[in-house]
Design brief:
201 residues, 8-stranded antiparallel beta barrel, 44% strand, extended
């Protein structure tokens, strides 16, 4: 409410046992993404049995900086990190890591022509606020070994190119944050475009 965030830990329903043992009161609370600005944060322990609720701390101040100040154009407005998939072809997916400086790493797990699982990675740069340039599509491999990690180094081979585009695609309605397209070409083969959407279990 008006930049004041309150979190109540462990709302208990007919449970006399505290959700967090007193000797280990370490919780990690994800506040999500917030616009740049000044905020306060309050954490309240929910009432348990005859023990009333109490504030663990109140109105702790913090500031969210404008991440665009660290970026170069084009300014990417959304965070595309997460698990993406093609609902029309379950069994494969795309993990995307997108950091505050707009570096992107995409790991694509799918199946080869022999039906066996296979991994590709690509690291595209942005050409616009919601679309990337094409990047080398790399297939990685490493011979097995009995040691951890195996003594043999990981190798990679460029097998084509891939890019991402999140520009107002949607199934059935446009949703820039949660829908997009994966475009890829294997060397010597046709270009394929897949509709992808953020996986929401």
């Amino acid at each position: 409410s008006q930049n004041n965030i309150t979190v109540t830990r462990g709302e208990v329903v007919q449970n006399p046992v505290p959700l967090c043992p007193p000797g280990n009161p370490k919780d990690e609370i994800d506040l999500g993404r917030s616009p740049a600005g000044d905020y306060t944060f309050t954490v309240i322990d929910a009432a348990v049995g005859s023990t009333p609720s109490r504030a663990m701390f109140s109105n702790a101040p913090f500031t969210v900086a404008d991440g665009r100040l660290l970026k170069t154009a084009p300014f990417v407005r959304l965070d595309y990190s997460g698990h993406w998939w093609d609902p029309n072809d379950s069994g494969w997916g795309l993990f995307i890591w997108h950091d505050a400086r707009d570096n992107v790493l995409a790991a694509w797990f799918t199946y080869g022509t022999d039906g066996k699982p296979i991994w590709y990675i690509f690291q595209p740069t942005w050409q616009a606020f919601a679309a990337t340039n094409a990047a080398d599509l790399l297939r990685t491999s490493r011979p097995p070994g009995t040691m951890v990690p195996p003594p043999n180094p990981t190798t990679y081979t460029a097998v084509g190119s891939a890019s991402l585009d999140f520009t107002n695609f949607g199934f059935p309605t446009p949703d820039t944050a949660n829908t997009g397209k994966l475009t890829y070409t294997f060397t010597g083969g046709p270009t394929t475009v897949r509709n992808i959407q953020r996986f929401k279990p």
